[in-house]
Specification:
single chain; mainly alpha
Length: 265
């Protein structure tokens, strides 16, 4: 891997981690396109340090209030507990499917199919949301909504599904408004992302890979951080006025093109 490739992967992670088009799926496709075969998984997980830092910086006030809420210092305790509850399904599925997620699920053909299938769910969620008269704000999130959104996050262990895409889509299906579903999705991302980073990067092999290419890892992480900040702000502003449709259509196009390229090789 060289500097240009590290920057490309960092930008890819930063943008697609939050824009609902699947960061893991795009990273698999990008590794394939760039011909990168070494340190792929460790580098991809390391890039999540950048996007996690972007989340913490962008939502630092919310994070602080939620932490205080856990100790009953404000009225955020209920939302904080719901976020913890919603994180549990992803933890369980991540442990059970860890091996498959690191190998079998990283197939280009499977990623392409997942991109397209999830796109259809996104379009269905928008169709349903437009016909629903009442929508729930973030502070009104119910236990049922949190659990279903958490289950959707668990499905995103499969590259191509998209963690943000799955959780925002689930939020729309259970009656949350688009901005509330997006903010809940972003807040929900923090604990599971931090856990995944710690698990992978504390293994001896991953640390050896990081030490051997520390400069490239640092460049990728910083690039993911900067592009991640842009993506968070963009998506919140965009979804306040527009639907998920453009992202769904993009996923369909990328999925079809990727399958054609792999098939014709």
């Amino acid at each position: 891997m060289n500097v240009i490739q590290a920057i490309i992967l960092g930008i890819t992670q930063g943008l697609t981690e939050f824009i609902p088009v699947s960061s893991s799926g795009h990273l698999v496709l990008m590794h394939h396109a760039l011909g990168i075969t070494e340190n792929g998984l460790s580098f991809d997980v390391a890039l999540h340090l950048g996007t996690l830092a972007a989340l913490l910086l962008f939502f630092y006030k919310d994070v602080w209030e939620l932490l205080l809420g856990l100790f009953g210092k404000n009225d955020k305790q209920r939302l904080a507990l719901l976020l913890i509850l919603a994180t549990i399904p992803a933890v369980i599925v991540g442990v059970l499917l860890e091996t498959a997620a690191e190998s079998t699920f990283r197939s280009v053909r499977l990623v392409s199919i997942d991109l397209m299938v999830a796109a259809l769910f996104m379009l269905g969620a928008e169709w349903y949301a437009k016909r629903r008269r009442r929508h729930t704000a973030l502070e009104q999130t119910t236990t049922k909504q949190a659990i279903i959104t958490g289950l959707a996050q668990a499905a995103a262990v499969v590259p191509g599904v998209s963690r943000s895409g799955a959780t925002i889509t689930a939020g729309l299906f259970v009656g949350m408004d688009r901005v509330a579903a997006t903010r809940f999705s972003f807040l929900l991302a923090m604990p599971i992302t931090a856990g995944a980073i710690l698990k992978v990067l504390t293994s001896g092999q991953a640390m050896q890979q990081i030490q051997s290419e520390a400069g490239l890892f640092a460049i990728g992480i910083f690039t993911a951080f900067i592009s991640g900040l842009f993506a968070i702000k963009f998506l919140l502003n965009y979804l306040a006025k527009h639907s998920l449709a453009v992202f769904a259509y993009y996923r369909l196009v990328v999925g079809v093109v990727a399958i054609l390229l792999v098939t014709l090789r």
